[in-house]
Every structure is written in C-alpha cells, then in structure tokens.
User: What shape does this take?
Amino acid sequence: MSKAMARHSDAQTIPLSFTLNGRLQEIEVEPHELLLDLVRERLGLTGVKRSCDVEVCGACTLLVDGRPVSACTTLALEVRGRSVLTIEGLAEDGKLHPLQEAFIAHGGFQCGFCTPGMILAAKALLDENPNPTEEELKHFMHGNICRCTGYKKIIESIMAAAKKMRPAGSKS
Amino acid sequence: MLRRFRLEEPESVKEASEVLGRFGESAKIYAGGTELLLTMKEGLVHYEHLVNIKKVGLNQIKRDNGVIKIGALCTHHQLESSPELQKSLPAFVQMEHNVANVRVRQAGTIGGNLCFAEPHADPGTLLIALGAKLVAAKGSSQREITAEDFFVDAYETSLEPDELLTDIQVPEANRGVAYLKFGYLERPSVGVAVALGAGDGKQYIGDIKIAVGCAGPAPKRMADAEALLRGKSREEATRNLPKAGEIAGRAAQALSDLHGSQEYKEHIVGVLLKRAFHSALSQC
Assistant: This one.
C-alpha cells in the first residue's frame, strides 16, 4: 500500500462491493479515493493509466456498467454495486477479444500507453453501435488521444473488429 | 491527489439543503464531479464535506403543459440520447452530443455544468436563447431564475449557498434553434446560440433570442444584436447580420486567453452568429 493510501484512524470508510472483471470485489474505501488509484495501486491492475489527469486524454478509461469513464476523476465509491471492466478482463479463457486481435493485426498501437483506454472505449462504442460509420467512430473516440499512430491504424483496427464481431449475414 | 473530505448522502432535496445550511462554506454539492474534482485535485479549492446529491432523484425528463422539464441530475449522456428531447428540442440534443467527450458526458450532469459556471461551457448559452427558467430549491421553498439572470460571472451564479438547482424548464415553441461553437482546445473558444420564430407568411423574423458564451466570463443574452433583426424582413435581417455580429462580439466581453485573443473571439462571434441565424431560419 502506498504512503498516500495509509489510513487515518478517524477516517470515514465506505464499504464498496462491486464486480471487477466479472468477479465480486469487496473492499473499504475512503471518500476521496479515486477509482484509478483503487484499481492500479490497491488492486494491482496497471493496464489503466494516469496521464493527463483532467479527463481529456482517455488513457485512464474504464468501463462502468459498459460505459466509459475517466478513472482519474471518478471517486472509487461511485462503483458501488456496479460492474467495472478493465483491459485485464477483456480476454476470455486465454483468448484475446476481437478488438485486441485487430489492434495487433492492423498496427493500432506503437508505444501502447493509450491502448487499454482506446480498446475499452472502442468496446463501449461497438456494444452500443455494432456498425458505426467512420464519422460516428471518430465522434465517439475523439476523447481518446494517441500521440504515435496518427489514428488511421486505430480507426482501421476498430472497423476491422466491428466487422468480425457482427453476426455473419448482417449488413456491412 | 485529492485531500480527505467527508461524504454526506442526503436522500431528499430538503435534507440536502439542510446539510448545506449546517456546514456552510465547508460543504459543496457533488454530483457528476467532472468539474469539481478537477479543481479539488489541483488544490485550488478544498471542502471538508462533499454532499453527494445523486440519491435525491431529479433525473427525469418530462413534458408538461408546453414546458420541457429537465431534472438537474440528468447526465449529458442521458440528454444526448433522449428520444423525447430529440423530438421536442433537437438542437439541445445536438449541443449535448458535443459536450466535452464521451466520458465527461457519461458522468457530468446538466445541473453541475450550470452551477459550476465554468466559462467555457455549452449548455448555459443555448438555454439563455431558449428562454429557459432554472428552478432552485431551499428547504421546502423554491424560486425560478431565468437562465439569463442565473450566470453572474466566471464560476459564479445567482444561487444562494444553501440553494439547489432542481429543474431546468424550457418552454416549447414553434421556432428554429441553432447552437454553434468553435475551438481548437478541449473546451470551446466561442459558442453562439440563436432561437427565432418566423412571422407573417415566414417572410419576417418574429421573436429572436441570441446568446454568446465561452468568449467572456459568463454566457450572455445579446439584446442589442437581437433588436437589429427582430421584426425585420429576411432580406433586411440578412443585411443587418454583420452589424449584429459586431455588436454581439463587443457585448460578449471577450477575454484574451489561451483559447484565442479578444479580437479573434469577437470576429468568431460574428461568423457563428451569421451561420446560426441562417441555420435557425432554415428550420422555420
């Protein structure tokens, strides 16, 4: 536990029960603890990144009940009774998610720092809209910043994954 | 890193306003947290108590007797995806769809956006042009404030410290509405809203409301610019547009900052006013 997380004896604690990557998690938090610190520092899932720290870059994106949030500016207590998905929970039975496979196949990342947030945001998009136009994709993803790829490969990766994830026979 | 605070979780508006009254300046309302937590993380402000009001309700969208009532705790995402609003106020839905980014829209509330009064925000400007009223509650009493009178200065509204914004009420009307913004950073440099009706066989501009935001410390209604267009024929109004844009640019009290110089923002006000006017008129 980091020094910053050391408890005060008079601190208010809040019991937190939530689903993390499909498994029930029960832990006590203080009101000021951020979701990002809870997941990274206390629960050890370091796929989620702290970067801009002001909800602009998307590197700290997590899915809460399937919707993207900025974990850097979300109180941990906000996930009471909810379901949190991190990049570590995306592969199932050792098999990568189609988005992860597509990012590898289409070169959707270089340094990889933005990639967990990028893929989770893309998952939220495709769950809501399995057949997005490129404009819809850009609008949804514009809050996730990448400083390596120039975005083209990311767009290609998401479009390729979308195609693969759609049931066979559905419209292009 | 956030400093420690205590969390209060009232379950009604009345209880929330009591908690705020009890703790005074050491307490602040917390809803989506998208603005408040940023300033607290930076150490710019600190409160001993955050009053989480997400358990008090206020998250419905209703149509009632010619008025659209939006609960203050509706998130931007709720508003951008409301079929009801898409039908009755499509320009509002469009504006909401372009607030910040998908994560901010998911957490941030319309009430929090208005009450925080960050100058570079979209909803207040459009609500002024729509002639919206904001309902504030304190204990069991409530009062209405026009959107126009709500914004006092940067980060300052006319709400009392123990008052809560509960509803935003937008009158339904047969009108064209447009909100346009421009910026090159995460937040807009200038936002312009126009709402107008067309009278007399649609050849004349009827009532018109213009508001400008982001350029200066608070969104403002542009009465002098409106006067150049109200009651005029389409042709005359179109001729008067550059002058109206100039007047609105000056009245916006634009500030030079990292979002652009004063002169630049004044120019953009004129450009956006012209486009928003034509867009609104084309809907009539």
